[in-house]
Amino acid sequence: MSSASVRFWGAPRRRLLGAACSLIRPSSPGARRIVDMSYSRQFLDFQGSNIPASMKKVVVTKLSSDFREAATLHRDAPVPLPGDGDLLIRNRFVGINASDINFSAGRYKATVKPPFDAGFEGIGEVVALGLSASSRYSVGQPVAYIKYGAFAEYTVVPAKEAIPVPSVKPEFLTLLVSGTTAYISLKELGKLSEGKKVLVTAAAGGTGQIAVQVAKKAKCHVIGTCSSDEKSGYLKSIGCDHPINYKTENVAAILKKNYPDGVDVVYESVGGKMFDLAVNALAIKGCLIIIGFISGYQSRTGLPSSQVENLPAKLLHKSASVHGFFLNHYFSEFKMAMKHLLTMCENGELVCEVDLGDMSPEGRFSGLESVFRAIDYMYQGKNIGKIVVELPHSVNSKL
Predict the structure, then answer these.
(1) Would you say the C-alpha torsion 244, 195, 215, 266 has a positive or negative sign?
(2) pLDDT at 10 over 80
(3) How far is it, in rounded angstroms, from Cα 112 to Cα 59?
(4) How many other CB atoms sit within 10 Å of the CB of residue 309?
(5) Do the Cβ atoms of 266 and 286 come closer than 8 Å?
(6) Could you tell me the strand order of the sheet in which 116-117 lies?
(7) Rounded distance, CA 99 to CA 107, Å?
(8) Which of 82, 83, 87, 85 is nearest to 139 (CA)?
């Protein structure tokens, strides 16, 4: 067996001393042979490159809804060691979410104090793992995950929380937070059925694009708001029946004219005036699902300014409802949703558009340094699909 064929770190964690590695003999027929690298001077990953001692990662050092003010790129953070049940993932792509600045502002955990690591989701390869984790995973295996601290070159993820994926493709990042949010919320709260009219706000974004397609799969009539003709074209290409460019069209007037009886389900992520408009557009027994309110995230309080008056009376008048949806409260449905979405994606039944920033002023989002401008780009409303940052890795083989 080659000394580079399998790499494990087991518990307890040890300093890397000496240069010897030993072969643990199998205790029973059929057991796996494991190369114990605990005393190796250097670890090599499955492509034959050294796993470095330090890495880059983005750390929140000050609570602020201005991500550039809140976060700092650390260039010499130690590469973490996986424990017995952990995987060490070399991140190849990380996902950008509107709520990254809610996290950097300390809105998700009232007790959190800086410094803490930023980022929610990533995808990459397993480059090292603990002994227990080796029963389910192997070095070189592509995996995705949701975990705080994803804006890093390497991340330790408990094996039980990792999500095996067919390959390291950025498209799979569209499913982790955005895809499962759309799928579970519409399934659990929207109760979609053929013929229902569904309004999706910010429909060309990372989450909206999945919501449009989930609703179309349920044979609904889908209306989508967006901010450009290019986005309208994209929405038509994924099956949206009636894209509305709110920059050039009067959304309220169009909805009143074309849908005088209102819409049955609203998938809402913008807040502010768009939320007000959505409430007014609800049909009798309509349902509005709030998955976010991006218009307020950059404010001091994190809350949008809403002009809806007498909301209880409006809901009562229509026997309508408003539901909030936060993915953390639906993790019991997460694996089921991911399995379904992955199958759809692999079978070509779901378009998972990613925006790597190729059309942004400074070009492609490459390296952790570009996380900051990727977040700016999202809040400027420029993206079509899920914003993803690539973390290039050049293989310098030692094999």
Answers:
(1) positive
(2) no
(3) 13
(4) 8
(5) yes
(6) 71-78, 54-60, 116-117
(7) 9
(8) 87
> CA 338, CA 361: separation in Å to the nearest integer?
34
**Mean pLDDT, range 240-250, rounded to an integer:** 98
pLDDT at 3: 40
Token pair 């558009």: residue? 353
The residue type at 277? L
Q: Where are the beta strands (DSSP E) in the chain?
A: 22-24, 34-36, 54-60, 71-78, 86-95, 116-117, 121-129, 142-146, 154-158, 163-164, 197-200, 221-226, 242-245, 263-268, 282-290, 321-324, 354-355, 386-390
Tell me the pTM: 0.87
Distance of CA 299 to the CA centre of its chain: 22
d(CA 343, CA 339): 6
CA distances (Å), origin 25, targets 29, 85, 147: 10, 21, 35
Distance CA 352, CA 169 (A): 11
- pLDDT tens digits, one per residue of 139-179: 999 999 999 999 999 999 999 999 999 999 999 999 999 99
Q: Are strands 142-146 and 121-129 parallel, antiparallel or unpaired?
A: antiparallel
pLDDT tens digits, one per residue of 288-339? 999 999 988 888 777 776 666 789 999 999 999 999 999 999 999 999 999 9
Q: Tokens representing 96?
A: 């950008």
Q: Tokens for 126, please give them.
A: 């397993």
CA distance 154 to 330: 27
Residue 127: phi and psi, rounded to 5, are: -110, -15
The larger pLDDT score, comparing residue 30 to residue 280, is at 280
Q: Which domains does the chain have, with CATH numbers?
A: 22-168+353-390 (3.90.180.10), 175-329 (3.40.50.720)
